[in-house]
Each structure stands twice: as structure tokens, then as C-alpha cells.
Amino acid sequence: MKESFTQCMDWLHTWAGLLFGWLLFAIFFTGTLTVFDQEITYWMKPELHHVIPSPLNVDAAVRTLEQFAPQAERWSIELPSERTPVSTIRWSQDGTSVARMINAKTGQPITVRNTHGGEFFYRFHYQLLLDQAGTWIVGAAAMAMLAALVTGIMIHHRIFKDFFTFRPGASSHRSWLDAHNVTSVLALPFHIMITFSGLVIFWSIYMPAGLQVHYDGEMEGFWAEAESFIEPERANQPAPLVSLRDLEREARPYWQGGQTRSILVSHPGDRHALVHVNRQSTDRLSLYSDRVSFDGESGALRTVWINSKPAYMTQSVLSGLHFVQFGGATIRWLYFGMGLAASAMIATGLVLWVVKRQGRHTTTDAVGYRLVEGVNVAAIAGLLAATATFFWANRLLPADLPARELRELQIFFTAWSLCLGHALIKKLFQLRPSLRIWKTQLSVAALFFILLPVVNVITTEHHLFMTVPKGQWEVAAVDLTALIGGLGLGWTARRLDQLARTSSRPRPSHPVASGG
Length: 516
Known about the structure:
The protein is an alpha+beta fold and about 525 residues long. The chain contains 19 helices and seven strands. Helix 8 (about 190-200) packs across helix 13, helix 15 packs antiparallel against helix 16 (about 405-430) and helix 17 (about 435-460) packs antiparallel against helix 19 (about 475-505). It starts with a helix and ends in a 12-residue tail after the last helix.
């Protein structure tokens, strides 16, 4: 009975991992990049690199909003931070929303190239660019990940011993299994936490019954009650707006040492204008901000909302653990490393599925086996190569190209599709062995990443030779990470090439014992 149970768990672990593994690798890899989404966006907008960081001049930002959107229904001013040295203003009017980056000191708009930047990896990570349908697909993949983690623990009787076990010189199957076990056990608490918290974030989509019963499915109504958010009706009577700079100063003591994240104005210029000052969430685990609200005409204090409800706080902390806005660069790099470990765990599991069945499917009719081999290469090495081309496109496309941000995405998905086509054609028509295909695509990815800092030297004035001496690490870190990652991929490709050469050599026949 025990053996049968273990076999069932092994079966579930294997097939849940394989069927969702390609998708899970993409979700975890792009999620790992999302840890530094703001830094990636900053790198992909080199027009911002010359801006000197300074505190926000609130009055200047308000003047810019009055110039661009005097009749807007809502204004938003996002303060600069250590991760983004510029400020962003937003306004919504007639159902459309507009955002502009401004110089925090002068309030003057900054013209930057159109790019999705790190936002692309963030959107792909949780919805695959498919809106709510994508969120459901990612949720199903997260459930498969949880099932694979739980069953993986059950079938590994020697989980503590496996933590210290890695035998790269052993057989191919043994080495891949050790690599899979090490990357699994090494960051197991992180794997479980990040998967579970990812599901909790979208509880309202995955379990909407409560919202349907109590709020008729209206999410806005739930958040308004949960956060005591006031949204008054417009009076349609003009009235001057009180100084936002003074209101921000008045709200700051409520943060108890924290910093202001943003200022939101409902109905600016109207007698019913309302000003919300929101706290930064970078100094604590809880993601959702405390808020102080003022009357926009008189400046009178309306509400002070502090995130203290137990259930709401629990969800907020779990969201904070997932979004990692706390702890500064050290914690983000720790998340980045564990995210790479999770990606490696999924990748080694996919390769292990193939290696474990190697030798069983040598006949030409094993199309399914060759299909899995080909998709494995494209899903892992192909995604890495496509990611590198995304960064190259950002630097090589003209800055004023119409629909430029869409061209970057087209290049990314075209590169990924080409990798998939290359792998499938080579495998299905048995033109090359798997190791050669892995080596080719990893070499392409390595070359693109290694040369990315060179492209940056040629196309911008803020490259490693300038950013490192100036201590502009938020820009230099992207170049250095690409260089180090490319060298790692290059080493892996070279190692696979050596294995391919070794495996292609004819094996010597066994000597006949003399005198036998």
C-alpha cells in the first residue's frame, strides 16, 4: 500500500511537472526578472539616465498637471524613490488614462522612448499578456506547482541527505536528478511561499463567491469598504485646490518615519475635490499603503486609514512577501537568486523527464518523445535567447519609431518562435541530436547577453565605462548581470558541446581476455 501510494505521488509529480513545466519555467523566469522591474525599465529608458535625483517639487508637478489636464477627473503624482529617480504624473479623463515622467525638481516632462520595460516581464509573469484568461492559466499552473512540490517532498525519503548530494561525474540520469534535488531542496521554503502567495494575491478571481454574494461582483465596492475609501461625487462648482505640498507635509507624521509614495486628487479644481496622500510600503512587509485624506478645498483632515484589520493585514503581508518591495537591494538580490534556483529546478525536472526515458524511444515512431525534447529546448534556451533580443531591440530600434513598444514585443515573440521552429524541425526530422540543439540555442543566448553591454556602449552615453566610475549602479547592474549571465550560458553551451562530442565517438569494443 505504501509503495502504491509513493508510485501515485511519483506519477502525479512527473506529469504535473511535465504538462505545466514549460509554462512554469516562463512564469518563474519572468517573475525573477520582475524582482528588478523598475531597474529594467530605467535601463530601457536611457533618456532618464542624465536626470539628477532630487526630492519632488510638488508645486511644480501640480503646475504641470494644471497645464496638461485642467479638466481631469483624477490626478496622481508618484514621488521619486531610490529605485526610480524621476517622478511620474498621471491623469484620467473621459475614460482614458495618461502617464508622463517629469523631472522631480523642475516638474518639466521628460521625453522618453516608448517601451514596456520591466512591465512586460511583470505582465507576462502573472497573466501571459492575456488579461484575466491569462490569470486563470497562471493560477492553474501555480496549483500544478504546489502539487509538484508536495508530491516531490513525499517521494523523496532522503530529503535532508539530498540537500548535500550532487554528483556531476555520475551517470547522466543521476547527475540531472541530483541537480533537480539540490535546486529543489535548497530553496524549498521559497518555492512554497512564492507559489502560495501568488495564488492568494488573486483570491478574488479564483474564489469570487464572497464578492458575488455581498458586492454583486463589484470589486471596487469591496476595496472601498475594506480600505474606507471615499470617492465623492463632483459638485460641478469650481474651487481652488489647497496646496498639495502642505498636505503632504501634514500627512507625513502619520507614517512614523515612513515616506510618502504618492498623492492622489479626485476632482481637482472642484468644490468636492479630495486629496489622498499614500505611504511608501518599502519599509515593511505589508504591501498596501496607509493613507491620509484631506478636503481638497479647505485642507481639512477627512480620514486617516491605517492597515490594521487582521484578515486584510494577512493578505497584505502575503502580497508583500510576493512583491518584495521591502528590505532594499539585498533582499531583492536574494529573491533573484532563489528565483533562478526555482527556474533551474523546473528546467532540470524537464530535462530529467527526457533523460529518464532515453533509450526507451529510439525508434522513428517516438514522435511524442522527440516533440518533448524539442519543446524543452525552446521553452528554456529559446526563452533566454528571446529575452536577450528584447533588450537588443530596445537599444537598436529608432527612439521615435511609431508603436515602438509593440515592435519590441514582436521581436521577442518572433525570436522565441524561431527557436521553437528550429528545435522542432531538428528533432522531428532527426537532423541533429538534442545536445547539439541545446548547445546552439544556449550559444545564441550567451552571445546576445555578452554583447549587450557592447551594444549599450555603441548606442548610449551611459554604459559600463561611465556608470561604474560614477557609481550609477542601477544602470550598471543590468549590464553586469547580462554579462555574467551570458558567460554562464556560454560555459554551459561549451560543456554540452564536449558531452555531445564524447557521446558521438564510437565506443571501443571490449577486449577479449587472453588465455580464456
